[in-house]
Write a structure and sequence with these properties.
Blueprint lengths: L5 E12 L2 E12 L5 E5 L6 H8 L7 E6 L2 E2 L11 E4 L11 H11 L4 H15 L14 H12 L6 E5 L7 H16 L3 E5 L3 H4 L4 E6 L2 E6 L1 H5 L6 E5 L5 H9 L4 E7 L2 E6 L12 E4 L4 H10 L24 E12 L2 E12 L3 E6 L5 H8 L7 E6 L2 E2 L4 H5 L2 E4 L11 H11 L4 H14 L15 H12 L6 E5 L7 H16 L3 E5 L3 H4 L4 E6 L2 E6 L1 H7 L10 H19 L1
Parallel strand pairs: 3-8, 3-9, 6-7, 7-8, 17-22, 17-23, 20-21, 21-22
Antiparallel strand pairs: 1-2, 1-4, 4-5, 9-10, 11-13, 11-14, 12-13, 15-16, 15-18, 18-19, 23-24
Length: about 575
């Protein structure tokens, strides 16, 4: 009988939290099959990273056994470090070293002889397409290139067991597809892969799935096994006169609807067990096959309280479309850093109450555009008006109407939740009764009461992002800028986050957002697609998908449209240069 690459037997792991010990994993029993890709999913704080660190022998269990390649890690590691590759959630390499220097360092740490190391490095540089960037400093790489470098370093010894902690977090769709091509190739070579992910399409590519919640294993099985019980409960709903965002909110509020989410063709609905469709006038309900995302929601709905249901009426603010007044006007906007042009001749208009999305690969210029719109960077050329204020000449009045959630978490990690809220309330000039009311409202609206005294560094990522949004909204801004706010956030928190964004837009708040989740792009009223600092397409989600349609793919998904439009643009740019 072949030994299991990884086996947990009654594993329990706790950590000290103040005077108490908190359970991270509780009585976990799992066995990985050799040569398969196993996905690890669950909300923030479920125990995914702890499980991976135990598998990598970076932690020891309190009780139970962890067997790696047939060896109990409590009895010593032996030569396991030569047979197990591990890539942590956060970029774990040395940003001041070049790509080649990082590979050389990790080769020495893994005790590879110079000849073997050079041969393996050349294979990995070709596999990851990092060959032309060997001399580039790791800190100057795009998000996708950093992840590929981290994966290359984990693969230097061609491990039998590869452990990946959210390897595609913060990575654009093109780089994500490239990373998955590498992972699929490793599976074909017989490598066993255990990875955590927040992407449902990635979960469906796995052979087996492990679903964790609060340190316990809820369910395991193949994607097909987990979706079979949902047969006959999934529907595609369309309404020719109602915008998809409003249709989704109407459906989500109905009894018997467990989940409603926007997709390209309409709104996908998952009904609770024994519930029947409650069809309203003008709606068309069509049965569709269940997906793993439906199964995920079904399983976790039984374990967690549902996010608050928000009633959104079809009001002039919520459904005004292009008739609303413009609040952001950008004309021929450019930004240069020395000889490098980060943004060139960008023009677009955002109207009141719109959700306006900026899409693009890593390094496309999205964050630079955001920082100029917020008055944090001065443009090199062009004009931009935010809330009728020329941001090139008088940004201070406009800032009072802006809320901003940065791409990298920008709150104070050594301060508590309450201290961060108090600091930002003071920074926004809130005083007296208004200040007290806003702080109380923020704690209530974002469910922060249980974390008031916790330092931010100790919070799960989903709670951190919830706090960041709460701080950005303290002064009741008319315009909200969100730079990849859901990157690395678990799927349940992402849904809660978008519920809040939809509510804000319905109240007339204008929302500008960047995202790498193509399903989130469907929630936007208007989109701009950027590549190499330039805008290459803009319009509604449907219009962007139509721009990428072809005879081979007449009805592309948003991800397929994203990849097609960017690759075409970059190919033309290279030929022109």
């Amino acid at each position: 009988m072949t030994e299991a690459p990884l086996r947990f037997i009654g594993v329990r792991k706790t950590f000290a939290h103040g005077k108490e010990r908190v359970s991270a994993l509780d009585s976990i029993d799992i066995t990985l099959a050799a040569g398969q890709v196993t996905g690890l999913l669950g909300p923030d704080g479920a125990g995914k990273t702890t499980l991976l660190r135990l598998a990598a022998a970076l932690l020891r269990p309190d009780t139970g056994q962890v067997q790696v390649l047939g060896q109990d890690i409590s009895q010593g590691l032996g030569n396991l470090h030569t047979q197990v590759g591990y890539m942590p959630q956060r970029f774990g390499l040395y940003e001041d070293l070049s790509v080649q220097e990082n590979l050389d360092l990790y080769g020495r740490l893994q005790e590879l002889d110079e000849k073997s190391a050079q041969k393996r490095q050349q294979e990995l540089l070709k596999l990851t397409a990092l060959g032309p960037f060997g001399r580039r400093r790791a800190g100057a790489l795009s998000g996708g290139m950093k992840q590929k470098l981290g994966l290359a370093c984990a693969l230097l010894r061609a491990p039998r067991l590869l452990l990946l902690d959210e390897p595609t977090v913060g990575v654009d769709p093109i780089a994500r597809r490239e990373l998955w091509n590498i992972i699929q190739g490793l599976r074909q070579d017989g490598t066993t892969v255990l990875l955590s992910t927040a992407y449902f399409d990635e979960a469906e590519r796995c052979d087996q799935l492990l679903l964790l919640h609060a340190g316990k294993l809820l369910q395991s099985g193949s994607p097909a096994e987990l979706t079979t019980p949902l047969h006959g409960r999934c529907f595609l709903v369309q309404h020719p006169q109602l915008r998809q965002r409003l249709l989704r909110e109407s459906l989500q509020c109905r009894g018997g609807v467990l989940d409603a989410r926007i997709i390209a063709a309409g709104v996908r609905v998952l009904l609770a067990e024994r519930a029947s469709p409650r069809q309203q006038e003008g709606e068309n309900w069509e049965p569709v096959a269940a997906s793993f995302e439906d199964a995920f929601i079904e399983i976790y709905a039984k374990q967690t309280r549902n996010s608050e249901t928000v009633q959104i009426a079809s009001s002039p603010l919520a459904d005004s479309g292009n008739e609303a007044e413009p609040v952001v006007v950008v004309q021929d906007l450019s930004k240069r850093f020395g000889n490098f042009t980060a943004v060139q001749n960008s023009s677009f208009t955002v109207r009141k109450g719109e959700i306006f999305g900026l899409l693009g690969g890593n390094g496309a210029g999205k964050t630079t555009t955001f920082r100029m719109l917020c008055g944090l960077l001065s443009p090199s050329g062009g004009s931009l008006q935010v809330a009728d204020v020329d941001m090139r000449r008088a940004s201070s009045p406009a800032r009072a109407r802006i809320g901003y959630v940065a791409q990298k978490f920008a709150l104070y990690g050594n301060l508590s939740v309450d201290q961060n809220l108090a600091f930002f309330a003071s920074a926004y000039g809130l005083r007296g009764t208004i200040r007290s009311q806003r702080l109380l409202q923020a704690r209530a609206d974002f469910q922060l009461a249980d974390y008031r005294t916790n330092n931010v560094d100790d919070l799960p990522l989903g709670i951190k992002q919830r706090l960041a949004l709460a701080c950005a909204l303290l002064h009741d801004p008319a315009i909200l800028f969100l730079d990849e706010p859901t990157s690395g956030v678990d799927p349940l928190t992402r849904r809660e986050f978008w519920q809040r964004i939809n509510t804000l837009a319905a109240r007339g708040v204008t929302v500008l957002i960047t995202t790498h989740f193509m399903d989130e792009a469907e929630y936007c009223d208007q989109l701009v697609l950027m590549s190499l600092g330039a805008i290459l397409a803009q319009g509604t989600p449907q219009e962007l998908r139509q721009k990428a349609s072809s005879a081979e793919r007449p009805d592309p998904s948003m991800e397929e449209a994203f990849i097609q439009l960017i690759k075409t643009h970059e190919s033309h740019t290279r030929r022109a240069s």
